[in-house]
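Please check our next protein.
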Amino acid sequence: MDATDLARENALLKARLVEVEATLAETQEANRRLQDILRAAQREKFGKSSEKLSPDQFNLPLEDAEFAQGVLEAAQEKAEAAMQRARGEEPRKPKRNRGHLPSHLPRVERVIEPASTLWSPLERHWSERQWRREGALERWG
């Protein structure tokens, strides 16, 4: 390798390093945001003023956490793709068999019957309670 090839490769590696560092910074920011949301949720739930909050407000930090989790996952996927590109690999697609079995395999259908169709006392009790509850809801609804 001569000096121009080395300089070109050095510039390419520096560019990839900048990509990876930017992705790392995004991931760290998303992680920091998740930690802040978690601390706020803990403070709201267990802090001195926790009894003053309405139950509807407990879900607000969780929605922010879900959003931040999505951002974090996207940044991780982006970082993994950048690392694969840096190594010269193509991102792998998952290998899935979506119900297409080979034609040479035999198809066997089995019906498994229960040993007994009689209900146990516990199952009967639960079923009667459920029936009463649904009946009561229909009357009041």
